[in-house]
Amino acid sequence: MWTPNTPLQNGQYIIQRAIGGGGFGETYLAEDTEENRLVVIKTLNREQQEKPDFAEIQKKFRKEALDLSKCYHPHIVQVYDNFPEDGLWAIVMEHIDGDDLAAYVENYTAENGYLSETEALRYIDQIGQALECVHERKLLHRDVKPNNILLRRESKEAVLIDFGLAREFQPGKIRSMTASKTEGYAPIEQYQRRGDFGYYTDVYVVFHSPPTFESL
């Protein structure tokens, strides 16, 4: 939707290129001219814009930015800003230079496509710390998977991204949730229309996401 060199927010951000997209959003690499740094800008894709309930979808999308901004942690992607542009809300986030964990496992690991136990435990610990921060704020990520974990190129530290399915919850309360999930990564209760969701919904995924951690 936004082409290279497109200015946003009165020229503060200059789009460099599109870097990805999924069922909900589009992400772009951009230059923050005020802070002299690269950032990632995320907005809803055209498919979402054409839905009759787009206004409600966009309201939830912006809430994602507000929820994520509360989770300041070294292993959680940082939100810098959010703003409307021609009727679309955009979320400005930290740019993390590095591959996602799925690509790292596929392209760089030497042990038959699996992480070593030592390395896997390090990432489990780091993402576990991130989820502790998320859970303390009464949020569930609900889509923890190797594609949503980036590794900083220099330090190889893990960073949790993509809070598009994050939801608030009340401990001990059974409630209805959306059917959105990633097949093969979600725990049993997430496949149900109504279920007892809690911290364990995210914890299950950390320990069972194939193929990254299953050797443990």
- Roughly what fraction of the amino acids lie in strands? 25-35%
Structure annotation, total helices = 5
Radius of gyration of CA atoms, rounded to a whole number:
18 Å
The ordered H/E elements are: EEEEHHEEHHEEEEEEH
Quick one: overall form? globular
Distance N to C terminus:
42 Å
Number of separate strands: 12
Low-confidence stretches: 165-178, 210-216
Rounded mean pLDDT is: 81
Query: Which class of secondary structure composition applies to the elements?
Result: alpha+beta
Helix coverage percent of residues? 25-40%
Strand order of the largest sheet: 1-2-3-4-6-5
- Main sheet summary: 6 strands, antiparallel
List the topology elements.
Blueprint: E1 7-8, E2 13-21, E3 25-32, E4 37-44, H1 46-49, H2 54-69, E5 79-85, E6 88-94, H3 101-108, H4 117-136, E7 139-140, E8 149-151, E9 158-160, E10 167-168, E11 175-176, E12 194-195, H5 199-208
Antiparallel strand pairs: 1-2, 2-3, 3-4, 4-6, 5-6, 7-10, 8-9, 11-12
List the keywords.
two-stranded antiparallel sheet; 216 residues; globular; alpha+beta; disordered C terminus
Quick summary of this structure?
The chain is of the alpha+beta class. The chain has helices spanning 46-49, 54-69, 101-108, 117-136, 199-208, and strands at 7-8, 13-21, 25-32, 37-44, 79-85, 88-94, 139-140, 149-151, 158-160, 167-168, 175-176, 194-195.
